[in-house]
Amino acid sequence: MADLAVTAASLVMAYLATPVAWFWVLLSQMAFDGCAAETAHCNYQAGSIVLIGHPLITIAALVFGSHWAVARRRERRLASFVGLSTLGGVIVIFFVAEFATHVASGGRLFGAPA
Asked: Which of 14, 68, 92, 99 is most buried, most CB within 10 Å of its CB?
């Protein structure tokens, strides 16, 4: 019973964290506002790929994790690690998207470049 509770809770948290993470990535795209200067080295194409790719990859991870958890529960096997891994995957995908935005914006996301 504890396995089901952990699996359900972690999958629910992953599904709730997904739109929040996407909105944060969307707000992070404002780092490209500092790219108006001629000395800025910004990669708008990479920023667009992050903006489009982040939700697609996150949704794919959610669907895969949910289906895998259901399959393991049907086989009466432990599935809590699948739910926790799915939540961890959503978090890792978010941080990778933020780092990619930082690099693509020429270092303007986490502070002005030196």
From this structure: 14
